[in-house]
């Protein structure tokens, strides 16, 4: 059986990438805290786990899906940015062949400057962030296999959204600012934009929505037990509920 190794050079892990991974994770946690600042769970963690997402990512919840996606995007973003800045030995500016041929730019332009290396960041994040979910110990049909596939899916969502919103940035050249010629390069979007997109993509299912094909929760039977998965507080979306007592003969 073959084993897939994680990006080695000369038998050693890319050690200069680790500060970038750490900083990308910090940005992701900061964005998580901002996005959930008005929610019941505000991306808080126990004091002993400060700087980490915490146990919430081990559960199959919307919040966990967000943390996986934003963490993957954060690492991708920071690696791609540091490539452009020349802070990593194994990468540099975005390669010319990786730049899109058309991005709604007029003909009077040329690729130039030094763009963020989204492709390298994407590959590194996929190999590094996903490695835990690819471990041999997680066997098909075994407990945890489905969760592992879900986590990898959420990781990929974060990376793909980041890549999809990496756009050209252009600088004009010409007499008196006439912009006769543009020099363009690829620029990563801010992490805030990715966080907003990830949050907007998650419906509440509280209201009837014909577009998403959901009928809402009005009229559903719920439990007054606040810890139950079908608790009234959760299903009724804080809109209140009516209690009924039924006699069973």
From TrEMBL:
Domain of life: Eukaryota
One GO term (biological process): neuron differentiation
Protein source organism: Meloidogyne javanica (Root-knot nematode worm)
GO cellular component: extracellular space
Subcellular location(s) of the protein: Secreted, Extracellular space, Extracellular matrix
Similarity comment: family membership: Belongs to the Wnt family.
Function: Ligand for members of the frizzled family of seven transmembrane receptors.
Pfam families xref list: wnt
Main location: secreted
Record keywords: Developmental protein, Disulfide bond, Extracellular matrix, Glycoprotein, Lipoprotein, Secreted, Wnt signaling pathway
The name this protein goes by in its record: Protein Wnt
Alphabetized InterPro entries for the sequence: Wnt, Wnt_CS
Species classification: Eukaryota, Metazoa, Ecdysozoa, Nematoda, Chromadorea
Molecular-function GO term, any one: cytokine activity
């Amino acid at each position: 059986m073959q084993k897939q190794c994680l990006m080695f050079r000369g038998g050693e892990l890319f050690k200069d990438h680790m500060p970038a991974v750490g900083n990308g994770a910090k940005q992701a946690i900061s964005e998580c805290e901002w996005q959930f600042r008005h929610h019941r769970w505000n991306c808080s963690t126990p004091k002993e786990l400060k700087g980490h997402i915490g146990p919430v990512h081990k559960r199959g919840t919307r919040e966990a899906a967000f943390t996986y996606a934003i963490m993957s995007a954060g690492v991708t973003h920071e690696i791609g940015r540091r490539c452009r800045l020349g802070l990593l030995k194994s990468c540099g500016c975005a390669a010319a062949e990786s730049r899109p041929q058309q991005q709604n730019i007029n003909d009077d332009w040329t690729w130039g400057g030094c763009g963020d290396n989204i492709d390298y960041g994407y590959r590194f994040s996929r190999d590094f962030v996903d490695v835990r979910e690819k471990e041999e110990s997680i066997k098909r049909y075994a407990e945890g296999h489905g969760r592992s596939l879900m986590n990898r899916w959420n990781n990929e969502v974060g990376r793909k959204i980041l890549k999809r919103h990496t756009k050209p940035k252009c600088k004009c050249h010409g007499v008196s600012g006439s912009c006769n010629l543009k020099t363009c390069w690829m620029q990563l979007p801010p992490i805030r934009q990715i966080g907003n997109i990830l949050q907007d993509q998650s419906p509440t299912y509280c209201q009837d929505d014909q577009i998403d094909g959901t009928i809402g929760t009005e009229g559903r039977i719920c439990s007054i037990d606040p810890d139950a998965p079908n608790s009234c507080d959760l299903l009724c979306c804080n809109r209140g509920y009516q209690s009924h007592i039924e006699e069973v003969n």
